[in-house]
């Protein structure tokens, strides 16, 4: 609707001109609203048409939470294929077989401690013994205390350094070591029973390379 308000005011009294101008504004607003609705409906229809051709298999449901599979580290992590997890399970199985066969009341760490003391060519300090068995200071102290209580080892002050103590295996310890050695060998055989001779050698060589 086109209307020259100035011309209209020239021919009509003031009150009539105001009413006509109000009707003009209302009519123009209704036309604008209808045009806006048509544009919105048309845009919505075009969007729906395009959406039908959009590949929903690759469309993210949420741009905030969507991540590319190639950049998500959780996609490539499988717990059952991790070396630490498998080593722990293998160690638990060996521990169960060891304790099942052990008749002398020794733990694997206590057995290793006695064996290191007997094969040593000279007396060992507590720190040196811990390094040879792979124990920290606190664990070494506990193991030594329990072996001392069973009279399997004894302690003497070093002749050259009175602040230093050295450890020896006793005759009782040697006899017990000889008695339980078949049990220890049997637990190792049971642990490796599922492997061939070649696989056993390969496993031991690979484990030595890891430590």
Automatic annotation (TrEMBL):
One Pfam family here: MarR_2
Swiss-Prot/TrEMBL GO biological process terms: response to stress
Positions of the HTH marR-type domain: 80-211
Protein name as it appears in the record: DNA-binding MarR family transcriptional regulator
Keywords in alphabetical order: DNA-binding
Keyword Hydrolase: no
PROSITE patterns in UniProt: HTH_MARR_2
Gene3D superfamilies per record: Winged helix-like DNA-binding domain superfamily/Winged helix DNA-binding domain (1.10.10.10)
DNA-binding in keyword set: yes
One Gene Ontology molecular-function label: DNA-binding transcription factor activity
């Amino acid at each position: 609707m086109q209307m020259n308000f100035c011309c209209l005011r020239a021919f009509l009294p003031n009150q009539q001109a105001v009413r006509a101008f109000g009707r003009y504004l209302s009519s123009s607003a209704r036309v604008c609203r209808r045009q806006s609705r048509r544009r919105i409906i048309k845009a919505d229809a075009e969007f729906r048409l395009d959406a039908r051709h959009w590949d929903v298999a690759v469309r993210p449901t949420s741009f905030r939470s969507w991540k590319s599979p190639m950049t998500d580290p959780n996609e490539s992590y499988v717990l059952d294929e991790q070396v630490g997890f498998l080593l722990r399970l293998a160690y638990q199985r060996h521990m169960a077989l060891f304790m099942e066969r052990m008749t002398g009341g020794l733990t694997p760490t206590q057995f290793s401690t006695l064996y290191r003391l007997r094969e040593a060519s000279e007396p060992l300090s507590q720190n040196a013994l811990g390094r040879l068995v792979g124990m920290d200071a606190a664990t070494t102290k506990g193991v030594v205390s329990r072996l001392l209580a069973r009279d399997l080892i004894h302690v003497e002050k070093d002749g050259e350094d009175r602040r230093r103590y050295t450890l020896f295996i006793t005759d009782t310890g040697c006899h017990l070591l000889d008695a339980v050695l078949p049990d220890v060998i049997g637990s190792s055989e049971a642990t490796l029973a599922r492997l061939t001779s070649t696989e056993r050698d390969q496993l031991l060589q690979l484990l030595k390379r890891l430590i």
